[in-house]
Write a structure and sequence with these properties.
Number of domains: 2
Number of helices: 8
Shape: elongated
Structural class: alpha+beta
Largest sheet: 6 strands, antiparallel
Radius of gyration: 22 Å
Number of strands: 14
CATH architecture of the largest domain: 3-Layer(aba) Sandwich
Order of helices and strands: HEEEHEHEHEHEEHHEEEEEEH
Oligomer: single chain
CATH superfamily of the largest domain: Formyl transferase, N-terminal domain
Distance between the termini: 46 Å
Length: 308
């Protein structure tokens, strides 16, 4: 069971293993783009392309779909970036349902563990394979694997690394379950932290933050949904920056320096050099490309309000 790209590598490794994939379950197609064309999820399209039985699940209350899934008589559900399963679904398989979660639980329970690990400036993260219980991300842990976070990682690159690791971890966990060697670990709820869903009101850069925090949030939300600032009443999405530690500035968000290959902005405790960005309605550019056709000048201020 899965929806986005993150689920593809574990699925591919599962298909290459000695385990039998009876079916793939994914969300129903949704109208996308200006023409509102119905599009399958990434996982759903993968199933179609590879001629694997696909069950597109709309409502969990649809009894026909529920009975179809029961008829598969599966041993286990493997859930990767899907939805919260109701109790009656968790109870269908002989060995229940397990989830691949992109954090070392009980840290970062919730919808956005990869983003928050980057946004908080963590140096490592990992994968947890755990038994699904009614309460989200609280079940017993079957296996955990850790990975270092590079200073160059953003949401896209770290997601890719964790997806690959998740596939490897999944096969080890399934082997342990199959052989009866799984040493289940009960989560310590007192040590849990949250990774709530990213919302639109979190995406506007606050230049009064420290350099490190601004950089971490840009990394954590790049390339999607992307942090942004405002210049001349238009949004500028910023995908990548470099930190230049200097001194504290009385005023943040002021453009301090522009050259043919650099644009430096003040934050609370130093300069931030913007490397990649995208003006509203245009394509993503390197700073060198952007500066060839912009009217931005030294002394301009990045606003926190599109109406300013």
């Amino acid at each position: 069971m899965g929806n986005p790209q993150f689920a593809i590598d574990p699925l591919q490794k599962l298909l290459q293993s000695n385990h039998e994939v009876c079916a793939i379950i994914s969300n129903s197609p949704k109208p996308m783009g200006r023409k509102k064309t119905l599009q399958h999820t990434v996982v759903g399209q993968f199933a179609i392309d590879n001629k694997i039985r696909l069950i597109e699940l709309g409502s969990f209350n649809n009894n026909d779909t529920y009975e179809e899934i029961i008829s598969l008589k599966v041993d286990i559900f493997i859930v990767v970036a899907f939805r919260i399963l109701p109790r009656r679904y968790i109870n269908i398989p002989k060995f229940g349902a397990i989830n691949i979660h992109a954090s070392i639980l009980p840290s970062y329970r919730g919808a956005a563990p990869i983003q928050w690990s980057l946004m908080n400036g963590d140096k490592s993260t990992g994968i947890s394979i755990f038994q699904i219980e009614r309460k989200v991300d609280t079940g017993n842990i079957i296996l955990q694997d850790k990975i270092d976070i590079s200073n160059e990682d953003n949401f896209e690159t770290l997601s890719h690394k964790l997806s690959i690791l998740g596939g490897d971890s999944l096969l080890k966990a399934l082997s342990n379950l199959e052989l009866g060697n799984a040493d289940l670990l009960i989560q310590d709820n007192s040590k849990s932290t949250k990774a709530p869903k990213i919302t639109k009101d979190m995406l506007l850069i606050d230049w009064s933050w420290s350099c490190d925090k601004i950089n971490n949030w840009i990394r954590g939300l790049s390339p999607w949904p992307g942090m942004y600032t405002i210049h001349d009443k238009r949004k500028l999405k910023i995908f990548k920056v470099k930190l230049i530690k200097t001194t504290n500035f009385e005023n943040a968000g002021i453009i301090k320096s522009i050259s043919s290959s650099a644009l430096e902005v003040s934050s609370r405790d130093g300069l931030i050099s913007i490397l990649e960005l995208q003006q509203e309605g245009k394509k993503r550019l390197t700073i060198e490309e952007f500066l060839k056709g912009t009217n931005i000048k030294v002394g301009d201020c990045f606003s926190n309000d599109i109406y300013t």
